[in-house]
Specification:
The chain is of the alpha+beta class. A seven-stranded mixed beta sheet has the order 3-5-1-15-12-13-14. A hairpin with a 2-residue loop joins strand 8 and strand 9. Helix 17 packs across helix 18. It starts with a helix and ends in a 15-residue tail after the last helix.
Amino acid sequence: MAKAIAIAPDAWIPGGEPDPLIRHQHGHIGKPLSRIDGPLKVAGQAKFAAEFRFDGMLYAALAYATVAKGTITQLDTSAAEAADGVFAVMTHENAPRLNPPPVFLTADKAAGGDPSPVMQDASVRWNGEPIAVVLAETQEQADHAATLIDATYAQDVALTSLAEAIARGTSPGQFMGGPLHNESGDAATDFAQSPVGVDLTFTTPRHNHNAIELHGVTAAWEGDTLRLHDASQLVAHTAWSLAQMFGIDEKQIIVTSPFVGGGFGGKCLWQHQMLAAAAAKFAGRPVRLTLSREGVYRVVGGRGQTEQRVALGADRNGNLRALIHTGVTAKSPGAAMPEPFIMPTRSAYAAGSILLDVRTVDLDSLANTFMRAPGESVGTFALECAIDELAEKLSMDPIEFRLKNEPETDPTSGLPFSARHIDVAWKQGAERFKWHERDATPRSRTDGEWLVGVGCATATYPYYRMPGGAARITLRRDGHATIDIAAHEMGMGTATAQTQVCAERLGLPLDAITFNYGDSTLPGVVLAGGSQQTASIGASVIAAHRALVKELLRLAGNDSPLAGLKPDDVASRDGGICKADEEARFESYTSILDRAKRDTVSVEASPPMPMELMHWSMHSHGAMFCEARVNQVTGEIRISRFLGSFDCGRIINAKTAASQFRGGIIMGLGLALMEETQFDERNGRIANASLAEYHVPVHMDVPEIDVIWTDIADPHTPMGARGVGEIGITGTAAAVANAVYNATGNRVRDLPITLDKLL
């Protein structure tokens, strides 16, 4: 099928005809509009999942297993049950019977992080698995009682060592249903015969999610219907998956998520939502369950550790002859999410031959999952550091070397690029950053006791549009439009940007648009992940708008200036529709509905399947520039300047996009310099399960970050836009590492780059 779609005419493919919004503009798109939910948040009126209240609500706290693998032989809950305010304690012995969670990617709406039964037996599968839920009248009472639970275990031999797991043998990696393997030519031979080359090993640690909003859920059964207020990136998936677990129709589960205080891949479906729903059924009362910060580390997965090899061979003119990127990543048994670190390498550079491969091992640990730019964030660290080392061996400027090896078509798929203007991003970024002032000799710049260096790296992240989108548009006689779609607002400005897009598409002012989201009863199955929400929402609204225009033309009838027009002939402006190339043939929405004696018109539609992904190679790109200072006495690292120059198609909202770019870069600085989950291989336990010991960037770690973009529309995407949420973190760690090398002469290939590795 993919081969047939690849050679089909462009006109047969979604995006084959450019979105009219690329050329037809009313001035909404691109403006730096402040977030429409901002006033609610600063006034404390934005209700998050753990702020909903029900009469008679109980508060929950979890107790966690302290062994990596085994069986609970005794679970003494008597002291907890006798504690003040405790209503009940739920364990595997009395919990409602649940089916196993449907694992993400095993069905269209499956959302589970792993297939483990949830409090259904005495088995322990990882150190930190919930073993009891305490329900009490206050949160403090529940938290205290949870500490009184006493468990004893019969321990099994657990596999928690990456080295031991690799020694036992690895398995082929798969991601999004496809193999993590690409091969063309004989890369091993070509590398061995290359006049110039590097063969390097890079390692990256586990990482844990640390969104500022803790994972919270409020659950209440209303008869046979479950209402769940959740901090969620996938409300429709959660409703369906919980329905499978409880053995009921998905319409009996309503999941709402109006506001989410950070997601990044971690706010999906984990055991705490399942346990809260089960506990509410068990108790016959509503339940609020908010994970503690430690609880997030025990229950919510993060990024898997990797060991990567990058071998690059080139001729003496700087042309890549061989590109090898292989390695191993760890995951838990049954999890569908190995860290796909070869993803950026698939499209980054032209080479005579290519070998890309990810192998996996299973460890007895918490399931890993999506974490901002899965694969690309750590994959670009390895690839872009190796590119820098090879450029130095060739005595070439690293930007010149990268541009010399720009591919004309996708190096692994052979598809044409939908739009690729990374050369423009490099040129604009280099000029803004004053790259020409760089001294290529390490340790050549000092400022007192500080060594100063600069580095750069390429950023890349795929364009995605997942199946399942749908939208409903309801247009009132007064010209107000409401758009309903089960999308998500996690602080990135979705509602604001999509209000701009819908106003642009309908030819209405911003205050005439209401954008409803975050409710599983709304149309569509939209995941806020993979930087694909803008495309998914955009394509869904395109389909619904087309259906709306068709219905409006039918209602207008033969007495309208629009008589005889087809939807493709029509554009929207000034609160109505007109002939696209003859704007005088116009009628307002109010006029059409008045004559039809209708108060409203409502339509719902779904976009076509995302076949464009098999017809073009589609990616956002960036050129990342970093200035680092390293103290010669202490080894302390300070980032003093950072610039991201991006090619992400058309920017919908300049303010929220800049915030997304900067947020991704800040997360990339954490990846580069401090973030590391300390996993104790003796007992499979995360040792630094707090923000006191798991370090993330704070204000003093972050310089003023400059961001610019090309704003060149992609002719094959909705609105000409590509994703901006994850591109900022990609390439950032490599730019930092390359800057640290330029400052010190030390290459660090093991993240994070801590001062002990420089002393």
